[in-house]
Write a structure and sequence with these properties.
The chain has one domain: Immunoglobulin-like, CATH 2.60.40. It is mostly beta strands. The N and C termini lie close together (about 5 Å). The protein has helices spanning about 60, 105-110; strands spanning about 5, 15-25, 30-35, 40-45, 60-65, 70, 85-90, 95-100, 115-120, 125, 130.
C-alpha cells in the first residue's frame, strides 16, 4: 500500500526566497514578486494571491501596517485559483498583487508610511508528497 509520509520541508525567507513589495498607488494595489534564491523548486499553496488579488485566508498571511496601526487583509469568500501548488523553479520569479480594496478604507485615510507584511508557507516541492511503498 502507498501512503503519504513526512511533512514538507519549508523554505526560509531571506535564504531560499525573498518577497519584493511595491506600493503601486496609481493602480491602488501592492505589487508582489516572490524571487526564488534556491537551487530547488519551491511550491506555494493558497497563501499566494489569485488573479484577482485575493486570498481565501488573507488575514492569516497578510497585514497592512500604517504607523502604529495594523489591518489584516480581508478573507475572500471566493477564490478563483487551483488547489494545486504553484511551482517556482530555481531562480525564477512569481508575480502577484493585492488590491487596496482588500483592507478597510480607514487604513488609507491615516497619515504615515504603509508597510505590507506578507507571510507564506513556501516549501520545497520535492518534499511535499513523499510516497512510502
Amino acid at each position: 500500500m502507498r501512503a503519504l509520509q513526512g511533512k514538507p520541508e519549508y523554505a526560509v525567507a531571506g535564504a531560499d526566497y525573498r518577497i519584493n513589495i511595491t506600493d503601486n498607488s496609481g493602480e491602488r494595489q501592492f505589487d508582489l514578486e516572490l524571487v526564488s534564491m534556491s537551487n530547488r523548486d519551491l511550491c506555494l499553496g493558497l497563501d499566494w494571491p489569485d488573479d484577482f488579488g485575493q486570498l481565501a485566508m488573507g488575514s492569516d498571511y497578510v497585514t497592512l501596517r500604517v504607523g502604529d496601526r495594523s489591518f489584516p487583509m480581508n478573507n475572500s469568500q471566493v477564490v478563483s485559483m487551483s488547489l494545486e501548488p504553484i511551482e517556482v523553479p530555481p531562480g525564477a520569479s512569481l508575480l502577484g498583487f493585492i488590491g487596496y480594496d482588500q483592507f478597510p478604507g480607514e487604513a488609507f485615510a491615516l497619515e504615515g508610511v504603509r508597510t505590507l507584511d506578507v507571510r507564506t508557507s513556501a516549501h520545497f516541492c520535492d518534499t511535499r508528497d513523499r510516497i512510502a511503498e
